[in-house]
Structure formats: structure tokens, C-alpha cells
Write a structure and sequence with these properties.
2 copies of one chain form a homodimer. Chain A is an alpha+beta fold. Chain A is built from 5 helices and 10 strands.
Chain lengths: 250, 250
């Protein structure tokens, strides 16, 4: 039995999310189906992050165990052939040891949130950005964001349905920058609470639009009350950018 | 009567191209329909470039004459409201003098061609890139491209159905660069022949993949024979990036 690490890119738009569900097509389900067709083996594919419906991935990581022997190139190409009708691709397949676990071995996750700040709605970036008015001030957002970096109780930025045992997380980086009409928010942490990035972005956008002052996100954080934070930003702007693992496990 | 200059963004994927045609939905046709609905006026919308089916625009320019008086913001927002189901948006509407002509007043057009050079097919960039093998050498392509810059007879890089009177054009810039798995080709000229950018890209890709030597595009150019050039690159990778006008006409 060989454990494989898969690097994945997908457009989350048409899916119910990463996780297999009864009510629609999931990325996990598509991969498991492609694996059955390729190898005849019924396997569970474990993803590093359980992205929500509509959330995209530039670099999701998953692992799966296979009996059938084949080269990494053959595995990736074979899965891609079966996935072809769907916007899900295997960028790379790599042999890993039996202790590698896509979720538990991850030491860092990086998310990118894309906002289109202009009057006209998106044409080319439809479904890949959150569309907000042009006067979004990215510098104000960046300044406000810095109070959230570090180890905190993120109860205020956590979805009601979040299953994490503790609301305490360490946010390593939270950067906001504007490139033309595009405002990019990058968030890096070992792990995140459910909807944490989207609630943080929704809160920072209130500051960027001048509806709240720069000190407001810090006060929302301190209050530990979800009702005080901004609205959850839409899923379509969120991209799981990359997952890092400690080198000894690769 | 007021002449308006419209700056447009669109995803060319679902359309038969810029120009009104009997066999499908065109961007020009959609705009003319939106104008009737907004103002009650039946007008011809003149575009700077007649982009082909599947070709995208980041900054197409068009002009149209309207009797109905309204603010630039109201015109752009009104057209966008009627265009909403389609991936076509007006980025900006601007009043111009009666001598402004979207096509004839243009002094420079800039096209961007996007190539995804990797093993895995695109998931997020599907329909927005040409997918080629990973070993595409962008530096070799750039070196080969420089022989095409300047004033030349581009007969070898012209579609059979091209209606231009003369095959002589001046290419001001032809740059190739790699950013990760993405290879970008940028071409700037006062005007282009039909399929000129796509045929140039198709030819340069043959060099980038090592199927032809760096001097080959120069020899194809000198031969003035379309049969010698590479295949026409697919429409989905091409973006009309911007149109420049001399300042006195704005």
C-alpha cells in the first residue's frame, strides 16, 4: 500500500464544497470516484482543509492510500482524465510515508481573499471575487487587520456551526493590498475556525468602506461575540492558496 | 446628440465575437439592445477592434451617439443593469466630441495572450488560457519574437479571410515572459491583421517547445507565406488589453 500526496486546484463554484454530501457534487466525492475508475479501489481521500461550497483552491492538499502501483505522472494524468468534465485538477502526485496526513501534518495554511472594488460588476472575474464599491480603502483595512494578528480567542469571527474545540487560534499574517481595482487579503495560520477568514474579511471591508473606524475589529475581537462582527464575506472570493508541511514529513 | 466613449470588459467565451451576426449573440448586439432598452434609441455601437468569437476584452473601447441626456455614471450603470445576465460590463462612459471614432481615432492597441504551461489542465483558468506542455521556454520565445518587431509585410501571419488592404503593419512591441506556470505574450501596434496575434503566438510556441529554432519566425516572416507559420493559437487565450487614443481627441 502506497500513501500519495495530491496537490489540487479547483473552481469551487459548481460544488457543495470539499466534503462528500448527499445534496450535490463534492470535490472529495469526484476524486474518490476518479480513483475507483482508475484503480478499482474504493478509498477515502483526506483533504487538508474542508473548503465550503463555492470556495476555490489554488493549492489544496489531500492524501489517499492505493494498492495499485503506478508512477506519479501516471496517477496525476489518469485522475485528470477522469476529472476532465469538472474544474478540478491534480497538479502533482507525490509518494509520501504512511505517517503523512494531509490535515494533521499541515503546519501552515494560506488563504487569499479577492475583492473587486469598482463601480462596474465583474465580467471576467465573475464568481472569483467579491464585488464592492470603488472607495474601498485597502490601507485602512491593512492597518485595522494588524490587531488580529497573533494568538487570540476568535469567538467573534467563528461560524455558529464551527466544530473546533477551542476558539483560540494564532494568526501568523493578515495582509491587505490593492492592485488596481483588486484588493487582496492574505491570511496565514496553522489552522482556522469555520468561516474565520470570511468573517474577518467581512469585518475589514466595513472599515475599508468607512462604515467603521480602524480600531473597530480589535474591539470586536475583544468582545468575543459573533453578533458584533461584520457580515461573512461571500465564498466566491476565497481561495485556499497553499498548505505547508514540515520538511521531515515530505 | 452626444457622442459617448465606452470602456468595456467582457468574457468572450459565450459569444460569436464583437460583431453582430445572424448565428448567435455578439457583444455589439448586446450593447445595442441594452441602449434601446435604456434610451429607446436604435443606434450602432462602433468598437475599436472586432474581436473574434471567444476572444476576451479587459479594455475594449466603443462609441455611440445618444439623444437622451444623462450623466456618465447613469449611462454606465443603466447599461450594466440591462447587460447583467451576460459577462459584459461598461467600466466607464465618457462624453467625447463628434470627431472621436473608436476605431479610426485609435493610435495603439495592446493585446495580451495567456498560455498555461504545465502538465495539468487548467481548472480555475479554464477558457482563459491556452494549455500547453510545461517545457515551454519563454525566453527562447521572447528572443525569437524580436525579429517580428518593426514595420514588416505580415502576409505569413494573416488569416485567409483578412480584409485589410495591405499586409504591412508596424509591430511596436512583442514581449514574452513567464510568471510561474503562466506565459504571457504582449503585442502592441497601431493596428493588426486578422488573426495576426494568434498566428504569431502559435508560431512562437513552436519555438518555445523546441520544435523550431529561434531564427525560424524571422524566416517565416521573410517568406510571406501563411502555410509556413505555426498553427493559429486558440481564441480563449487572447485578451484585448487596451486601446490608446491621442490626447487631443479625448
Amino acid at each position: 500500500m502506497q500513501r500519495w500526496r495530491l496537490l489540487l486546484e479547483y473552481d469551487g463554484g459548481p460544488f457543495v464544497g470539499w466534503q462528500r454530501q448527499a445534496n450535490g457534487i463534492s470535490i472529495q466525492g469526484l476524486l474518490e470516484e476518479a480513483i475507483v475508475r482508475l484503480s478499482g479501489e474504493e478509498r477515502t481521500v483526506v483533504g487538508a482543509a474542508r473548503t465550503d461550497a463555492g470556495v476555490h483552491a489554488l493549492g489544496q492538499v489531500a492524501h489517499v492510500d492505493l494498492e495499485k502501483e503506478m508512477s506519479p505522472e501516471r496517477l496525476a494524468a489518469g485522475l485528470n482524465a477522469h476529472l476532465r468534465p469538472y474544474p478540478v485538477v491534480v497538479l502533482e502526485a507525490r509518494r509520501v510515508g504512511p505517517d503523512f496526513h494531509a490535515r494533521f501534518s499541515a503546519v501552515r495554511k494560506s488563504y487569499l481573499y479577492r475583492i473587486l472594488a469598482r463601480r462596474a460588476p465583474p465580467a471576467l472575474e465573475r464568481g472569483r471575487v467579491w464585488h464592492v464599491p470603488p472607495d474601498l480603502d485597502a490601507e485602512r483595512m491593512h492597518d485595522a487587520a494588524q490587531a488580529l494578528v497573533g494568538r487570540h480567542d476568535f469567538t467573534s469571527f467563528r461560524a455558529a456551526e464551527c466544530q473546533a474545540k477551542s476558539p483560540i487560534k494564532t494568526l501568523d499574517l493578515l495582509h491587505v493590498r490593492r492592485v488596481g481595482a483588486l484588493v487582496e487579503v492574505r491570511a496565514v495560520a496553522r489552522s482556522f475556525l469555520h468561516h474565520q477568514v470570511r468573517t474577518i474579511v467581512g469585518t475589514l471591508v466595513q472599515v475599508g468602506l468607512g462604515k467603521e473606524d480602524v480600531g473597530w475589529p480589535a474591539r470586536v475581537l475583544a468582545a468575543r461575540d459573533r453578533r458584533l462582527a461584520g457580515p461573512t464575506a461571500p465564498a466566491c472570493g476565497l481561495f485556499l492558496e497553499r498548505i505547508d508541511y514540515s520538511t521531515e514529513e515530505l
